[in-house]
Amino acid sequence: MYNEPIFLKPVFKDRIWGGTKLREEFGYDIPSKTTGECWGISAHSNGPSEVVNGPLKGKTLDQVWDEHRELFADQVGEDFPLLVKILDAKTDLSVQVHPDDSYAREVEGEAFGKTECWYVIDCEPDAELVYGHHAGSKLQFEEMVADNRWNKLLRKVAIKPGDFVYVPNGTIHAIGAGTMILETQQSSDITYRVYDYDRLDDAGNTRELHIEKSIEVAMIPHQDADFEPVLSANEDLKIEKLIKENYFTVYHWNLEGSVAAVENPSYFLVSVLEGEGELKIDDQSSSAFKKGDHFIVPSTVKKFGMSGDAKFIVSHPTI
């Protein structure tokens, strides 16, 4: 039986809006001064993570999913369901929207649409997000886009470190400049751009917009999702269940000491945001973890202990 966590090597993505904070904050060896995304736990074909420890070392997560489904509670489905990223927005991301599963399959031939959520790791004092819009109908939305009335159309929301934002498919959204987030999402790379501030890429070209598809999939009028975080504790582990919805359940964990037994509901996706410590299994094996690590606790590990001083974002599929 596989009896250890699966540590993963991140994949980095250069983005027009990216910066260098992934290196400065987490010590990652980033490829450029405009590195916008760290795909920490990914089995997506556009950037699968590689296992860096144990008997599966050298395999990519999509290979492990295909060959060892017992590590994932024998979950059915052709594709690994979730993707965990850290994003460094030095400048504003484009205003965008993502489709649901049905639209993604029918129009793009992809397995999943994209519902996501964000934990704000850090941000500037005056940081904002675009979250939703003010159009009351599809016709009004189309008219405001055509007239470039972006300041009237887009809904701005102030944020601070520690905030949590749920972004179901169809939500018009954009991460603002000076913000670093951890994103838990469906394993999808489908993005429809609504507006990109008329900025130019390195070749002097504007980036492609997807106005027609955006209008087809957008939630009009906008409605905020209704959810309530739940607090609990297990010895020295403080647990905040940030959200439980159809695709994922996401937690913020704060470890200040030790916990003897954490029950594993299926398989945990774990990203270490701060600190360091040790994960213990059956009092026989232990694995050190530190800030910036990403790992999976497979379903073959029914429970585990932890010690140290660290903060995490943890998730699992809602099955």
Automatic annotation (TrEMBL):
Residues annotated as domain Mannose-6-phosphate isomerase cupin: 239-317
Q: What GO molecular function annotations does the UniProt record carry, in alphabetical order? A: mannose-6-phosphate isomerase activity; zinc ion binding
Give the cofactor note text. Binds 1 zinc ion per subunit.
Task: Give the EC number(s) under which this enzyme is classified.
Answer: 5.3.1.8
Could you say which residues bind Zn(2+) here? H98, E116, H173
What InterPro entries does the database record attribute to this sequence?
A: Carb_Metab_Reg_Kinase/Isom (IPR051804), Man6P_Isoase-1 (IPR001250), Man6P_isomerase_Firm_short (IPR014628), MPI_cupin_dom (IPR049071), PMI_typeI_cat (IPR046457), RmlC-like_jellyroll (IPR014710), RmlC_Cupin_sf (IPR011051)
Please provide the record's keywords in A-Z order. Answer: Isomerase, Metal-binding, Zinc
Q: Which cofactor does it need?
A: Zn(2+)
One Pfam family assigned to this protein is: PMI_typeI_cat
- From the UniProt record, give one GO term of the biological process aspect: carbohydrate metabolic process
Q: Does the keyword Zinc apply?
A: yes
Where would I find the Phosphomannose isomerase type I catalytic domain in this sequence? 7-105
SUPFAM superfamilies, alphabetized? RmlC-like cupins (SSF51182)
Provide the catalytic activity annotation.
Answer: D-mannose 6-phosphate = D-fructose 6-phosphate
- Annotated active site: R193
Q: Which family does it belong to?
A: Belongs to the mannose-6-phosphate isomerase type 1 family.
What name does the UniProt record give this protein?
A: Mannose-6-phosphate isomerase
Natural source organism: Fictibacillus arsenicus
